[in-house]
Specification:
With 173 residues, the protein is of the alpha+beta class. It folds into 2 domains: 11-125, Beta-Lactamase, CATH 3.30.450.20; 129-173. It is built from 5 helices and 5 strands. It has helices at 11-24, 43-49, 53-56, 70-83, 127-172, and strands at 28-32, 38-41, 85-93, 99-110, 116-125. It has a 5-stranded antiparallel beta sheet, sandwiched between helices. It is elongated, with a radius of gyration of 29 Å.
């Protein structure tokens, strides 16, 4: 019979394990303070957007969004602070000026008394999905236009055939 002694977690190994996870996770991660300033990003976030930590630390996240998203950010972030959860889409500006669409999902960390500590957010690149949706909407509008044209044409042809038949009946009389 073997008895196993329960090992106590070694703090330095745990820290090392979580740092490795943070550094190697293949998703962009960001953490904001309660004013929306960036307090942490992982290497994937930096690589994705082309910035250095020096470029982004302490900057408000709105600096990395096109102006047309500032009002949405304000409302979304306010709601995030109230509900402790967020799931939304934003366009973000990369260092090279390219704008890409991202789905952002996040939670808020609070201390034992409920005091705000920080946000934890993961960003998924939805640029291609967003472009496909826009193209699909455009194609649907074109199809609706053609459909209306052909339906209208068919209705007119039916009316014309009916009128021709009426005229033929009148000629017979």
């Amino acid at each position: 019979m073997f008895l196993f002694k329960k090992e106590k977690p070694q703090k330095s190994k745990d820290v090392e394990k979580y740092k490795l996870l943070y550094d190697m996770i293949p998703l962009a991660y960001q953490s904001l303070d309660n004013s929306g300033r960036i307090i942490d990003v992982n290497p994937v976030w930096l690589e994705t957007f082309g910035y250095t930590k020096k470029d982004v630390m302490g900057k408000n996240i709105s600096k990395f969004l096109p102006k047309k998203f500032h009002e949405k950010l304000k409302k979304s972030f306010s709601n995030f602070l109230k509900t402790d959860r967020v799931e939304t889409e934003f366009d973000l500006i990369k260092k090279n000026g390219k704008i890409s669409t991202y789905f952002v999902t996040g939670r808020i960390a609070r201390d034992s008394k409920g005091k705000f500590l920080r946000t934890h957010c993961i960003l998924f690149d939805f640029t291609e999905k967003s472009m496909l949706e826009k193209n699909l909407k455009k194609k649907n509008k074109e199809l609706e236009k053609y459909n209306k044209f052909f339906v209208d044409r068919e209705v007119k042809m039916t009316e014309l055939k009916k009128r021709i038949k009426e005229l033929e009946e009148q000629l017979k009389d």
